[in-house]
Structures are given as C-alpha cells and as structure tokens.
Design brief:
The protein is of the alpha/beta class and about 475 residues long. The chain contains 22 helices and 11 strands. The strands form 2 sheets. Strands 1-6-5-2-3-4 form a 6-stranded mixed beta sheet, with helices on both faces. It has a 5-stranded mixed beta sheet with strand order 7-11-10-8-9. Strand 8 and strand 9 form a beta hairpin. Helix 13 crosses helix 14. The longest helix has about 30 residues.
Length: about 475
C-alpha cells in the first residue's frame, strides 16, 4: 500500500494540470523575449537572489523558459506560505512579487498555503521552536490567508494590467493531500528516499541542534513535507520551480533531491531576499515587527506611511523590489529626487504602488485621505472620512456617540466626551488654548457648536486635547 501512494501520485495529472498549462498565444510568444530575459531582469532588480541548482543539470533553468528549447512554455512556479497568523505581512510581499512577475510573463503560478505544515513549524531562520498552534486555529488562519492571496491577485489583475496575456494564479492548501494520508503508509513510501546525513547537514538543522533548546522531531520533518509538497505539485501541475525566501534554500534542496531521485527529472529553486528592519532583524510576526497586509491588523494608512518613511538609501532598492515600475522610470524618479529631495517623490511613489496592490484603489484613496487629515490638517479630508478610517487613523482615540442638544457648547462637548477634567481646571484648558476641534483651536468654552465648523458634513467631530490626545465624536439625530 505504501508504494501505491507514490505510484498513484505519479499517474495523477488531474484537472489541475490542464488548468495550469496550455500553449502561450503566438503573438505573446513572439512579443516576449522568454523568461531568460525575465530571470536576468529580476536578478538585475535584486528580486531574484539565488538559483538552485545553478549548473550540472540536464536542463538549465533559463532553458525552461526559452521557447526555442525543449522546455514547455509556459512553466508553473510555486511559493508556500504557512498560516502561522491570519494575515500575510510585508515580509511575504517579495515572494508574491516574484510570482506576479512570472504570471505577467505568461507563466502559471501557485500560492500554496501550508494548512498542514504550519502545525509542524518551519525551523528555517529561527533560534527556537515556534509556539504550537491548535488545528482549529491553523484552519482559521489558512482560510484567511487564502482569502488574502486571492484579494491580492485580484488587485494585481485589475490595477496593474500590462496588455499581455497572463498566466493563471492559483491558490492551493497542502492540507488537501495530507489529510488523506495514513502516517505509516506515508513514512514507508516517502521516508526511504531521504538520507539522514543529508537532512542533518542543512544549515537550519545544524543551527538548531547546536542551540540550547535543540530541535523537535516535528521541526526536523518539516523539510521532508516541504519536499513532498514540491513533488506533489510537480506530478499534478508539472511545477518545476519553487520560489522562496533565502532562508528556504535548504528546504528547496531537499525537494530537488527527492524529485530527482524518484523521477530523474530536474527541478529548480529561486530565492528572494529577506526584508529586514533598520536594526537588521527579519520583518515578521516572530520578530514582533510585522507590517500586516490585512486591513484589520495594519490599516492602509499605516502601510502607506511605512513605505513613505523609508530612508533615501533604501528607496531606490525598494522601488525595484516592491513595484512593477520599469527600471528607466525608476532612474528618472531618482534623478528628480536629487533635485528636490524635500518632496520625497520616490517614497510617495513606492507607498502608492504597494498600497494600491495590497488594498486596491479604495485603500490607496483612504491612505491619502488619512495622510491629509493627520499631517496636513485638511478639513476637506476629515469631512469625507468614514467612521472606519477615523478609528484606523486614531487607534488610541476614544470614540463617543452623542446627541446634539440645542445650545451644546464646547465645554459641554469636552465634558461629555470625558476629554477634560471637571471644574475650573478643565475650563482653563480650553481658555489657555489646549483644545482644538477639527484642527481649529477653540478658546471660548461657552461657544455653541456650529454645524459645518465644529461638526463636519459627515456628522463627526475630531477633538484634540494637548498635542496627542484625540477624541472622535459621532453626533446623532442631526
């Protein structure tokens, strides 16, 4: 029965193969130089860091994408994303950009959610074991990641079209094949094809074995399951290239060796660089510095500001990594920046492109409204902001719903919102200029609120006490 698992997979091509392959339209094949140019271009942009194996295979990696060789065109490329949280983060974006660049060149790509492997925990790049997640939590996270990946692919398709015929973007979950496996049958069929010496030699394993905590069996077997994922996708979707962060190279090597041993075929790995903070720490959940792609965790405004704040010595590199802008256009943007650095043109363009990809046009518009409202004291921006945007922009602000009674004064409003202390002290805070409503300072506590000045067209008031304490008031029964 154990051997039948591999025989069954070897025979099964399934509907997925027909859905992800096919013949590239002749016009596009003639118009596109093949991914030999694509690989070189992304290497020049800094997006593709390493290729494995570089040499010594029957088919060289560029030949897979060259329409003039035996490599069938289009190809299928995949990248895995473990659902250790319910959202992707900026650290995942480069792998996604890599998939999108292949898709834009007419190739088929697979975003694989590790609904099964997340329960083991990938030891790559980690000094200690991940906190174990319950099955229900992993399933919930996996659903959220699948939705997030599909939303990103839809934004890419809708807002970044380049006039060419693209390949397919498919989202899969590896729990679909692992939940059907019997443990003993799986180990008997797969385990015999891995050598302990080779597995132990991986850098991620060596690092953990030398640590005080050591390494669990579950973590040790992670690379076996990732290798099997690659094999499964090779058999069912003819996927011959795996994309991953530079810390994934050992796992990719395990997949190559497993597939080559079973089939005699060559497959390949491409790594993308890891994005780090200014201190050199990898951006992500484990490091506690994740910038999330889910709006509920990081708002479009916060994502936009993360990229707007990037330093001058990083922004050109990030424009090449995180956007689809042609290199000559990036050069032009940087030339303008030299002449007018105070305008932060490259940072704003970078933030615009990334926010639009992640949150769509509506999210980008929201980020710009919030920027105008907070940093440019724009009343017009405040007037069109939704309740959600205000809560995202002023996360620490108190949110109150009040009824506007006739004759309601500035003092009444501040007290009802619990924004000032009672008695003479609160009164003096207003008279001494410590209170503003909708970015306008108010100094008369007895002033009656005026609709259109103190109360915006959207029925909201933004009350600020001092420099940093905000209170959002939604007026009822206007």
């Amino acid at each position: 029965m154990a051997a039948s698992i591999l025989r069954c997979i070897s025979r099964g091509q399934g509907l997925g193969t027909r859905g992800l392959s096919g013949v590239l339209p002749l016009g596009l094949r003639e118009a596109h130089s093949g991914a030999q140019g694509l690989l070189a271009m992304q290497k020049a942009r800094g997006l593709f860091k390493e290729f494995f194996p570089e040499r010594g295979t029957k088919t060289e990696l560029p030949e897979l994408f060259d329409r003039g060789t035996a490599g069938s065109f289009p190809q299928t490329i995949y990248c895995g994303f473990d659902p250790t949280a319910d959202s992707l983060h900026v650290g995942h974006l480069l792998a996604l950009l890599g998939l999108f660049h292949f898709q834009r060149a007419g190739h088929n790509v697979i975003a694989l959610v590790g609904g099964a492997t997340a329960r083991l925990g990938d030891p790559s790049g980690r000094t200690k074991e991940r906190e174990a997640l319950e099955a229900e939590r992993v399933q919930s996270n996996a659903r959220a990641l699948r939705q997030g990946l599909k939303a990103l692919a839809a934004n890419h398709q809708q807002l970044f079209a380049n006039g060419r015929t693209w390949g397919n973007f498919t989202v899969l979950d590896n729990s679909a094949w692992y939940q059907k496996q019997d443990l003993v049958d799986f180990l008997a069929a797969v385990g015999g094809h891995f050598r302990m010496g080779t597995l132990l030699s991986r850098l991620s394993v060596q690092t953990r074995l030398k640590s005080a905590e050591g390494m669990s069996l579950a973590e040790f077997l992670y690379q076996v399951l990732q290798a099997y994922d690659f094999y499964y996708l090779f058999q069912h979707y003819r996927c011959r290239v795996q994309l991953g962060g530079s810390d994934q190279l050992g796992n990719i090597m395990s997949g190559y060796e497993f597939i080559h041993k079973l089939t005699g075929e060559d497959v390949f790995g491409i790594s993308v660089p890891l994005i780090t903070s200014t201190t050199g720490a990898k951006l992500g959940k484990s490091a506690g510095n994740a910038v999330w792609l889910n709006r509920d965790k990081t708002s479009p405004f916060e994502l936009y500001q993360f990229f707007v704040r990037q330093q001058d010595d990083l922004v050109e590199r990030y424009l090449k990594l995180f956007t689809f802008l042609p290199l000559p256009e990036i050069d032009h943007i940087m030339q303008l920046h030299v002449k007018e650095p105070e305008k932060r043109g490259p940072q704003k363009r970078l933030a615009t492109e990334v926010t639009k990809l992640v949150h769509g046009q509506e999210g980008l518009d929201s980020a710009k409204r919030c920027t105008q409202a907070l940093y440019h004291s724009s009343i017009e921006a405040l007037e069109v902001m939704s309740d959600q945007e205000l809560k995202e922009l002023f996360k620490e602000a108190s949110f109150s719903e009040l009824v506007l009674d006739p004759g309601t004064s500035v003092l009444d409003t501040c007290r009802k919102a619990n924004a000032i202390p009672g008695g003479p002290r609160g009164y003096r805070m207003i008279t001494e200029g410590g209170v503003s409503i909708n970015h306008r300072q108010v100094t008369n506590p007895e002033s009656v609120l005026v609709v259109g000045q103190h109360i915006l067209k959207n029925g909201l008031s933004l009350l600020k006490i001092g420099k940093r304490n905000f209170y959002i008031i939604k007026w009822l029964q206007l």
